[in-house]
Design brief:
The protein has 21 helices and 26 strands. It is of the alpha/beta class. It folds into three domains: 3-236, Glutamine Phosphoribosylpyrophosphate, subunit 1, domain 1 (4-Layer Sandwich), CATH 3.60.20.10; 252-442, 3-Layer(aba) Sandwich (Rossmann fold), CATH 3.40.50.10490; 455-594, Glucose-6-phosphate isomerase like protein, domain 1 (Rossmann fold). The protein has an eight-stranded antiparallel sheet with strand order 3-2-4-1-10-9-11-14. It has a six-stranded antiparallel sheet with strand order 5-6-7-8-12-13, with helices on one face. It has a five-stranded parallel sheet with strand order 18-17-19-20-21, sandwiched between helices. Bound molecules: 2-deoxy-2-amino glucitol-6-phosphate. 2-deoxy-2-amino glucitol-6-phosphate binds at residues 304-307, 351-353, 356, 359, 402-404, 492, 605, 608-609. Residues 304-307, 351-353, 356, 359, 402-404, 492, 605, 608-609 line the site of 2-deoxy-2-amino glucitol-6-phosphate.
Length: 612
């Protein structure tokens, strides 16, 4: 996690860095800090808590005008969110300042070594070891020193450094953690993501692992891990970028929930087109050629959190359409067991951010085993999109709320079309079936709009259930993963304990939890397991549960079996998860909002989990 932003140019660096950090705050908000160089001296400001505190600190204790600096917003890994652990870290003489994102795995050994040599550590962080590493090994400039010390560092990092003896440049490097250089006119930037840069420039350099860059306002010099100067690989980002703003919404999360008719439409439009017969077809180049999927014998779908739940749903689609056995795995588990992988395995990784450490490791493992790898990702130029052999973008626009909502529904759209198109390519689905399903999919954005009309009703439900301590989410078949996702969403933003369970499984244990104090949200849409679900509802009603069902429109009978019903429009049962998840998102949001939590930045979380 953590966000890094740096500036060198002719303008007021403090304002620009603070603005950059504001856009990166979703990556971590335990503390924040900034280091600048003015008149040959380092100036540092740090504050614990959200970035707002750093703004206030700088207002109270202004930094001198400067054109160069680096900033950091932290998600604590080593050491509590105290001021001393906030970045930038500096040496005792205030010669250098560093910001770091990632984890230095051999920090304990390094700390011991330097402590024995008399170095006094100020913080509890792993990052601070970079300071004595530089000091002890200093040789002819920061960049040369960095080249020497990088082999001594184990782990992952994006590092930005300023030094008062090289006061017109930022030196930076990265390994397994993103760091992007933005190129402006007489000014240059570094940032942990693209979005924080796009308001300044569209000319970007994506640093590669081991690169060391020296960035001045008019010059960028990059050397690779062998110390060889690289030709600058400048990418011009053309895609449309809307300014990051909550518009009239109170939080990004609710804005993003309401954006879903459009984000899903965008994702569909990116993948499909209408042919001359007005049929919806797949844009071939978005997916892959026949050769790529030839001889695939098994499929793995690997991801974390909400993306993993999208993966669980895709298992139904892949197996239903392609008849190919599909295993869905949590990335942090996948990477440490012994999955059966070879060149006949297709490994699909899903990640909104494209920077999740465990998912990246899983992807690298699959690449090493010669698997065909495909990433489903929302961030252009992210690590996952670079490492995968093929990437399909979700095109739902930047997602700021830490709780993922619109990315999930767009991931489902991509996975559904992926499975369908794949099946068509290997002749397990006919052209007419493909076209029928794509037509049905094209109606989904309007149906999401209808789901969102439950907004006021769900707000009222949230008011009723606000103070309950435990919730249960139940779903069967394709909607079992939606139950898991619904529970995760509520936990994340409202800090209320919630459990997702397969409806048919509760009688094997979880039913013991049921009483009048545990509201149960049951997804009970008209699908092939509807009747079974109704029997399960009877069982929990008989034990005093308060039942809120998510049901198919016009299912009036279900009213007798539930205390409250939220209706969603009719849709082919295979597509229901894209709709049933919407009420669960709204419920989580409204409960958290009524409890007055910082919905977009839930405690202990961060948007991109770039550490193991
Ligand atoms: C979602 O609400 C969570 N914040 C989290 O579970 C997230 O989905 C997970 O960390 C994976 O992130 P990714 O999609 O960016 O890889």
């Amino acid at each position: 996690m953590c966000g890094i932003f740096g500036y060198v140019g002719n303008k007021n660096a403090v304002d620009i860095i603070l603005n950059g950090l504001t856009n990166l705050e979703y990556r971590g908000y335990d503390s924040a800090g900034i280091a600048t160089i003015s008149d040959g001296s380092l100036q540092i400001r740090k504050s614990i808590g959200k970035l707002n505190n750093l703004y206030k600190n700088i207002k109270k204790y202004p930094l001198s005008y400067t054109n160069i600096g680096i900033g950091h917003t932290r998600w604590a890994t080593h050491g509590k969110p105290y001021k001393k652990n906030a970045h930038p870290h500096v040496d005792s003489k205030k010669n250098i300042a560093i910001v770091h994102n990632g984890i230095i795995e051999n920090n304990v050994e390094l700390r011991k070594e330097f402590a024995e040599k008399g170095y006094h550590f100020v913080s509890e962080t792993d990052s601070e070891v970079i300071i004595p590493l530089i000091k002890e090994n200093y040789r002819d400039g920061i960049a040369n020193t960095l080249e020497y010390i990088l082999p001594l560092i184990k782990g992952s990092y994006a590092i930005g450094i300023i030094c008062r003896f090289e006061d017109s440049k930022i030196v930076c490097t990265k390994k397994d953690i993103p760091l992007i250089i933005g190129i402006g006119e007489n000014e240059n930037f570094i940032s942990s993501d693209i979005y924080a840069l796009l308001m300044y420039t569209r000319n970007l350099i994506f640093l590669e692992d081991g690169d060391i860059a020296e960035i001045s306002k008019n010059k960028i010099l990059i050397k690779d891990s062998n110390g060889i100067e690289k030709k600058l690989n400048i990418k011009n980002i053309k895609w449309k970028f809307n300014k990051i703003s909550k518009t009239n919404y109170k939080h990004f999360m609710i804005k993003e929930i309401f954006e879903q008719p459009f984000s899903v439409l965008n994702t569909i439009t990116n993948i499909t087109y209408k042919n001359t017969k007005n049929e919806i077809c797949i844009k071939e180049k978005i997916f892959f050629n026949q050769e790529f999927i030839k001889n695939i014998k098994n499929i793995y779908v690997v991801a974390c959190g909400t993306s993993y739940y999208a993966g669980l749903i895709s298992k139904f689609w892949f197996e239903h359409f392609t008849n190919i056995p599909t295993i869905v795995d949590i990335a942090s588990e996948f990477r440490y067991r012994e999955p059966i992988l070879n060149n006949k395995t297709l490994v699909i990784v899903i990640s909104q951010s494209g920077e999740t450490a465990d998912t990246i490791a899983a992807l690298k493992l699959a690449n090493d085993k010669n698997c065909k790898t495909v990433a489903i990702c929302n961030v252009v130029g992210s690590s996952i999109s670079i490492y995968a052999k093929h990437t399909i973008y979700t095109c739902c626009g930047i997602e700021i709320g830490v709780a993922s909502t619109k990315a999930f529904t767009s991931q489902l759209v991509v996975l559904f079309t992926f499975a369908l198109n794949y099946a068509y390519k290997i002749d397990t689905v006919k052209y007419s079936t493909l076209v029928t399903f794509l037509k049905e999919l094209s109606e989904i954005p309007l149906k999401i709009k209808q789901c969102l009309k439950n907004n006021n009703f769900i707000k009222k439900l949230a008011k009723k259930f606000l103070y309950y301590k435990n919730f249960l989410f139940l779903g069967r078949y394709l909607n079992y993963p939606v139950a898991l996702e619904g529970a995760l969403k509520l936990k994340e933003v409202s800090y209320i304990h919630a459990e997702g369970c397969a409806t048919g499984e509760i009688k094997h244990g979880t039913i013991a939890l049921i009483d009048k104090n545990v509201p149960v949200i049951v997804i009970a849409i008209k699908d092939k397991v509807y009747k079974k679900t109704i029997s399960n509802i009877e069982e929990i009603k008989a034990r005093g549960a308060i039942v809120i069902t998510i049901a198919t429109e016009c299912d009036y009978e279900i009213k007798n079996k539930s205390d409250y019903v939220i209706y969603i429009p009719k849709v082919n049962e295979l597509l229901t998860p894209i709709l049933t998840v919407i009420p669960t998102q709204l419920l989580a949001y409204y409960i958290a909002n009524l409890l007055k939590y910082d919905v977009d930045k839930p405690r202990n979380l961060a948007k991109a989990v770039t550490v193991e």
